[in-house]
Design brief:
The complex is a heterodimer of chains A (460) and B (231).
Chain A (H helix, E strand, L loop, with lengths): L3 H12 L1 H37 L5 E6 H4 L6 H7 L18 E13 L3 H9 L16 E2 L5 H11 L1 H5 L4 E2 L5 E7 L2 H5 L4 E4 L13 E4 L1 H6 L14 E4 L2 E9 L10 E4 L7 H10 L3 E6 L5 H16 L4 E4 L1 H44 L1 H9 L4 H37 L8 H23 L6 H5 L3
Parallel strand pairs in A: 2-3, 4-8, 5-10, 7-9
Antiparallel strand pairs in A: 1-11, 1-12, 2-5, 2-11, 6-9, 7-10, 8-9
Chain B lengths: L1 E11 L4 E12 L4 E5 L6 H8 L7 E6 L2 E2 L5 H11 E4 L11 H11 L4 H14 L15 H13 L5 E5 L7 H16 L3 E5 L3 H5 L3 E6 L2 E4 L4 H6 L1
Parallel strand pairs in B: 3-8, 3-9, 6-7, 7-8
Antiparallel strand pairs in B: 1-2, 1-4, 4-5, 9-10
Helix pairs in contact in B: 3-4, 3-5, 4-5, 5-6
Classes of the chains: A alpha/beta (460), B alpha/beta (231).
The structure holds adenosine-5'-triphosphate (ATP) and magnesium ion.
C-alpha cells in the first residue's frame, strides 16, 4: 500500500509521462553506453592479459615452407621437390639457446569415434570401404589404426551388443574428436597437470600402442554425472583407428584443450620413405617456448640462423606469433579506450541532464514541499520521498540500459574477435553507472533542504 | 499555551532590511478564538508562519507550553506541526494529485497511523464537513468552498490543539465563507484554539479577541472585542 506522499510523487510521474520518459531515456542511454563501453574495456583488458600470458604467445613456431605456401601440392610431389622435413631431433636446437625453456611438437589430429551411430551407418553402407582412406585429409596426422579392417569386421561379427556390455570400453556420443600428438614438453610448457591418472611416461612416447590423455570437459562427456573422471583411467575408447587406452585426464585449463585429447608423438617408430611422407603430411611444427617474452626476438633470430644453416636459405619458416598478437592487443585496447571515453562522456552528459531536469522539478515542487512540511514532514521524509522518485527513474532506466547494452556488447565482442565475454560485467558496469547517476541526483534533492515552508507558502 | 516575547522578523534583502515584525509579544490561551487583522503588508502572515513554526524569528522567544521551541531540531518541529497544529490557507493548498480522502489521510501518515485507521478517520472528518459524497474526488473537481472544507478536515486529522487559518475565506464567496466560519466556530467549541487572519470585520467580531497589526507592530490587543468596534 502506497503512502499518501508517495502517491503524490507517483501520480506526478505518471501525469508527466513526457518528462519522466525523457529522464528514463537519459538514464537508459547513459547506463547503456557505460555498460557496453565498460564491459568491452574490461573484457579487452582481460583478454589482452590472457593472450599475452598465454603460452602460445611465448613461443616461436618453426615450420617447413610449404605449409605456409601450398597445402594442395600432393605429398609425393612435395617430397620430391623439398628436402626439408622437420623431425623430433630438430628440437635439439633448443639446447643451443639457453633462454628457451621448453621445446615440443604439437600436431593436430582427429579420432573418428565408433558408437551406435557409426554402427548404423556401417550397416547402411558397405562397411569395409568406410575406412580405406583413414589418413591425412587435411594434412593432419591420423593415429594409425591397429588394423581397423579387422576391428570393424570383428565388431560387426560379434555384434555391437557385446561392446556395450564390456565395462572396459567407453563410447563417445561424438562422431569425431580433435586432439594433438604432442611430445612430452608440451605439458610442461603449458603447465598442465593430470587431474586423474598420469601424463605420458617416456616409454609411452616410443610405443605403438594407442594411448590418450583426455581434456577435462571431454572426459566428462564419457561418464555419468555421479561418476568421477578417475573411473576412466585404464579404460579403452573405441575409435576407427583402434582402441585408445586412457592413461590420464587433464585438469581444467579453460581453453579449447578441455574439449580435446592428446596422444604421444613419435617419429622414430617407423622409417624409410613412408615415414618421411607421413611426417611431411603431418604438418609438423616445432615450438620453442621462453619464460620471458622479451627474449622472443633474439630467440627467433637465433633459431632462424640455426635452421638456415641446417636446411638452407628459405626452407624453414620461423615465426613469432606474439608479434601479431601484440598488434591485435594494441588495436583492441585503442578501440576500447576510445569507446570507454565516449561512454563516460555519454554517461556524464546524461547525468548532468538528469540532474538538471530534476533540479527544475525541485523548483516546481517547492510549494508541495512547503505544504508537506506544514503537515508534518521532516526534511528526512522529503529527502527520502524524492530519492525514491529518483531511484524509480534510475531503476527503470538501468533495466532499459542493460537491454540496450547486451546487443551492442555482443556486436562489439564479435567485431573485436574477443573470446572472453562475460555478461555479468554488463550488470556490474550498469550498476556502477546507476550509482554514478544517483550521485548526480543527490545535488538537486539536497536543494529541498533549503526550502523554508514559510517561503513555499507565499508561492501562489 | 503560547507565549511570544519580543518576536522580530527582519528580511535581509540585498540593500534594505524589511522589518516584517517588530518586537511582537502575544499570549494565547488554550481554547481562545483570535482574529488577527490589519492592512495588507502589515505582517499578519509573517506572524502566522512564526506561530506555526513554518518560519523562525530573527529575535525573540517563542514558548509553547513553557518550552522554548526555537532551538528544537527539525524533526521535533515537524512533529509539533504534525500533531499539535492544523493549517488552513487562503488558497486551500490541497495536493491536486490526491483525492479528498487521501489529502485528509496524509498528515496521519506522518503520525504513523495505520492505513485503515487513517481512512476511517478521514472519511469521518469529511462527513463532518459535509463532503461524504466527494471523498474520492480530486481537488480540481471541487468548488472553492468544498476544497476549503477538505482543508479543514485535513487540519483536524491529527486532533490539533491549535488551528492557524490565514484568510480562510479570502478566496470564497460570502455564503461559502460563512459555511467555513461556522465549521471553525464549531471546532473552537470542542476546545481547539483558533487563530485566524481576516480582513472581514464581521468575522472579526465573532472572535473572542482581535489582534490588530500595523507595520509589524501590535497596535491593539484588547481583551474586549467590542471596544474596537465601539469607536
Ligand atoms: N520573503 C520575504 N522577503 C522579503 N520581504 C518579505 C518576505 N515575505 C514578506 N515580506 C515582507 O514582509 C512584510 C509583511 O508581509 P506579510 O505577508 O506578513 O503581510 P500580510 O499582513 O500578510 O499582508 P496581506 O494582508 O497582503 O497578506 C511585507 O512588507 C512583505 O513585503
Ligand atoms: Mg497575508
Amino acid at each position: 500500500m502506497l503512502s499518501e506522499p508517495f502517491k503524490i510523487i507517483f501520480r506526478r510521474f505518471v501525469n508527466r509521462l513526457t518528462e519522466s520518459g525523457l529522464l528514463i531515456i537519459s538514464v537508459a542511454l547513459g547506463v547503456g553506453a557505460l555498460a557496453a563501453g565498460g564491459t568491452l574495456f574490461i573484457n579487452v583488458i582481460n583478454e589482452n592479459n590472457q593472450v599475452l600470458n598465454s603460452p602460445s604467445y611465448k613461443e616461436i613456431v618453426v615450420s617447413t615452407r610449404e605449409e605456409s605456401d601450398s597445402m594442395e601440392v600432393p605429398v609425393k610431389e612435395k617430397l620430391l621437390n623439398e628436402d626439408a622435413i622437420l623431425a623430433q631431433s630438430d628440437l635439439d636446437a633448443a639446447e643451443m639457446i639457453p633462454s628457451i625453456s621448453y621445446s615440443y611438437i604439437m600436431n593436430s589430429t582427429r579420432l573418428r569415434m565408433i558408437n551406435e551411430d557409426f554402427q548404423e551407418q556401417a550397416n547402411n553402407f558397405a562397411p569395409p570401404e568406410q575406412n580405406n582412406e583413414s589418413s591425412s585429409e587435411n594434412g593432419e596426422e591420423v593415429v594409425q589404426p591397429n588394423n581397423p579392417q579387422d576391428r570393424l569386421d570383428e565388431l560387426l561379427e560379434d555384434g555391437f551388443d557385446s561392446i556395450l556390455s564390456d565395462n572396459s570400453i567407453v563410447l563417445s556420443d561424438e562422431d569425431e574428436i580433435s586432439g594433438y600428438n604432442v611430445t612430452s614438453q608440451f605439458f610442461d610448457a603449458w603447465d598442465i597437470k593430470a587431474a586423474a591418472g598420469s601424463l605420458f611416461s617416456s616409454v609411452d612416447y616410443n610405443q605403438t600402442n594407442s594411448l590418450v590423455i583426455l581434456g577435462s570437459e571431454f572426459a566428462k562427456t564419457l561418464i555419468e554425472d555421479d561418476e568421477d573422471v578417475s573411473s576412466l583411467i585404464g579404460k579403452r575408447m573405441l575409435a576407427l583407428q583402434g582402441y585408445q587406452t586412457i592413461v590420464g585426464v587433464l585438469e581444467e585449463t579453460d581453453t579449447s584443450y578441455d574439449y580435446q585429447f592428446f596422444s604421444p608423438y613419435s617419429d622414430n617408430t617407423s622409417s624409410g620413405e613412408f615415414s618421411q611422407i607421413r611426417r611431411l603430411s603431418q604438418n609438423t611444427q616445432l615450438r620453442f617456448s621462453v619464460s620471458d617474452s622479451e627474449d622472443l626476438d633474439t630467440v627467433s633470430q637465433m633459431l632462424d640462423q640455426w635452421f638456415t644453416s641446417e636446411y638452407g636459405e628459405g626452407q624453414i619458416i620461423v615465426t613469432n606469433p606474439r608479434v601479431e598478437a601484440e598488434q591485435t592487443v594494441e588495436r583492441n585496447s585503442g578501440i576500447s579506450i576510445l569507446l570507454l571515453v565516449l561512454a563516460l562522456s555519454g554517461l556524464f552528459i546524461s547525468s548532468v541532464n538528469i540532474s538538471h531536469i530534476l533540479l527544475s522539478r525541485t523548483l516546481r515542487m517547492k510549494k508541495h514541499v512547503g505544504i508537506l512540511m506544514a503537515l508534518g514532514a521532516t526534511k528526512k521524509n522529503i529527502n527520502l520521498l524524492f530519492s525514491i522518485e529518483a531511484l524509480m527513474i534510475i531503476v527503470i532506466g538501468t533495466v532499459l540500459g542493460v537491454l540496450i547494452a547486451i546487443p551492442i556488447n555482443t556486436q562489439m565482442q564479435s567485431a573485436l574477435e574477443l573470446t572472453i565475454s562475460s555478461n555479468y560485467m554488463i550488470l556490474i558496469s550498469a550498476l556502477a553507472s546507476a550509482i554514478l547517476i544517483y550521485c548526480f541526483t543527490i545535488i538537486p534533492i539536497r536543494r529541498f533542504d533549503r526550502i523554508k515552508p514559510a517561503d513555499a507558502m507565499r508561492i501562489q | 499555551m503560547i507565549n511570544l516575547e519580543n518576536i522580530s522578523k527582519v528580511y535581509d534583502l540585498d540593500e534594505t532590511k524589511v522589518t516584517a515584525l517588530d518586537k511582537v509579544s502575544i499570549h494565547i490561551d488554550r481554547g481562545e478564538y483570535i482574529a488577527i487583522m490589519g492592512p495588507s503588508g502589515s505582517g499578519k502572515s509573517t506572524l502566522m508562519h512564526i506561530l506555526g513554526i513554518l518560519d523562525t524569528a530573527s529575535s525573540g522567544v517563542y514558548k509553547l507550553e513553557g518550552y522554548d521551541i526555537t532551538t528544537l531540531a527539525d524533526k521535533e518541529q515537524a512533529r509539533i506541526r504534525n500533531k499539535h497544529f492544523g493549517f488552513i490557507f487562503q488558497s486551500f493548498n490541497l495536493f491536486p494529485e490526491l483525492s479528498a480522502l487521501e489529502n485528509v489521510m496524509l498528515p496521519m501518515q506522518y503520525a504513523s497511523v495505520a492505513v485503515k485507521k487513517r481512512r476511517d478517520r478521514a472519511a469521518f472528518l469529511l462527513d463532518e464537513v459535509g463532503l461524504s459524497h466527494r471523498m474520492n474526488h480530486l481537488p480540481t473537481m471541487m468548488s472553492g468552498g468544498e476544497q476549503q472544507r477538505v482543508a479543514i478536515a485535513r487540519a483536524l486529522s491529527n486532533e490539533p490543539d491549535l488551528i492557524l487559518a490565514d484568510e480562510p475565506t479570502g478566496n470564497l464567496p460570502t455564503d461559502k465563507g460563512d459555511e467555513v466560519m461556522q465549521i471553525l466556530e464549531k471546532v473552537n467549541k470542542t476546545g481547539v484554539t483558533i487563530v485566524m487572519v481576516t480582513h472581514n470585520p464581521n468575522q472579526g467580531k465573532r472572535a473572542n479577541r482581535i489582534i490588530n497589526v500595523r507595520d509589524g507592530k501590535i497596535v491593539e490587543n484588547p481583551k474586549d472585542v467590542g471596544a474596537i468596534y465601539a469607536k
